[in-house]
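Dear Dr. H.,

I hope your travels went smoothly. While you were away I took the liberty of generating a structure for the chain from your last submission, since the lab meeting agenda had it listed for discussion. I wanted you to have the full record in hand beforehand rather than looking at slides cold. The sequence, exactly as received, is reproduced here:
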Amino acid sequence: METEQIAKIFKALGHPTRVRIVEHLIRINTCVCGEIVDIFPYSQSTISQHLKQLKAAGIVCGEVEGPKTYFCVDRQILKQFKDYIGSLGNELSGEAGKIKEVQK
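The corresponding predicted structure, in token form, is as follows:
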């Protein structure tokens, strides 16, 4: 996963509403924007903007079917992001002794 995409994902997940939207989409697999609007106390335009940012980061995919757009998470991107975060944790574990030395 490229550094720019990682940064876009971090930025997209930097808002609590977008995190909650991703959590919701993971649970239900797919839904239309209107269904998300019914769950959150925000207008359709606000939810659309959040979905647009999630889509730009590659976290969410949208498929148009007639007048509706169905949204779902890109599970492959989220898995790659999870693996990246895991690799950071592994590096931190290996560096724990060095970090303590620097802090002294």
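Two observations you may find useful: DSSP finds five helices and three strands in the chain. The helical segments are 3-12, 16-28, 33-39, 44-56, 75-103.

With kind regards,
E. W.
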